[in-house]
C-alpha cells in the first residue's frame, strides 16, 4: 500500500527537526570541550587535574608543557570557599 502524500510533509519536518537538534547538541558539546570528546566518569583526582589545568592555561581542557608555571599560579588555589549553612 503506497504512502499517502499528506504524510510526507510532517515526516520530513519531524526528521529535519531531529537533525537540527542533534546537530546543535553536537556543535555545543564540541564547542564546550574544545573539539575533544566529553569526559565521563570523573573522580576527584581527575577533577583536581582539570582545576589545575584551568589555573595553568585558562581553559579546563587545555594542557601545557611549559616547565615554568605562570606567576598567578602561586597565589590562586583550587580550594573552594563555601558559605556556612
TrEMBL record:
Accessory subunit of the mitochondrial membrane respiratory chain NADH dehydrogenase (Complex I), that is believed not to be involved in catalysis. Complex I functions in the transfer of electrons from NADH to the respiratory chain. The immediate electron acceptor for the enzyme is believed to be ubiquinone. The keyword Membrane applies. This is NADH dehydrogenase [ubiquinone] 1 alpha subcomplex subunit 1. It comes from Smittium simulii. One of its GO terms (cellular component) is mitochondrial inner membrane. Belongs to the complex I NDUFA1 subunit family. InterPro entries: NADH_Ub_cplx-1_asu_su-1. It is a single-pass membrane protein. Signal peptide: none annotated. It is found in: Mitochondrion inner membrane. It comes from the Eukaryota. The keyword Nucleus does not apply. Keywords: Electron transport, Membrane, Mitochondrion, Mitochondrion inner membrane, Respiratory chain, Transmembrane, Transmembrane helix, Transport. Pfam families: MWFE.
